[in-house]
Design a protein that fits this description.
Blueprint: E1 5-11, E2 16-22, E3 34-41, E4 50-53, E5 63-74, E6 78-84, H1 90-101, H2 104-107
Amino acid sequence: MRQFDIMWANLPAPIGRRPVLLLTRTAAYAYLSKVVIAEVTSTVRNIPQEVPVGKPEGLSRTSVVNLDNIHVIPKALLDRRLGAVPSARHREIKRALGYALDWPELKVL
């Protein structure tokens, strides 16, 4: 498990099973029982809080990481790894998180 991996997660109802992006820093996965994730969805709204992802990141269809929908979940809810957002695109994730949380210092990355 690494930060920016995309994995299947079995989220509580009504969300259910869906891909998620891991946001917790990589070094913490060995120690934490809960992790921070963002939902991945095929519903595209074209807003700054979304980052496009798709087949290059291991998904079967075009989707977005929606940084408006972040959760802290038990690590046990994570299932199979699908892929990852490449390091060249990490700034896009951080920028979208800046918009979602209204943190101006992240919006300019």
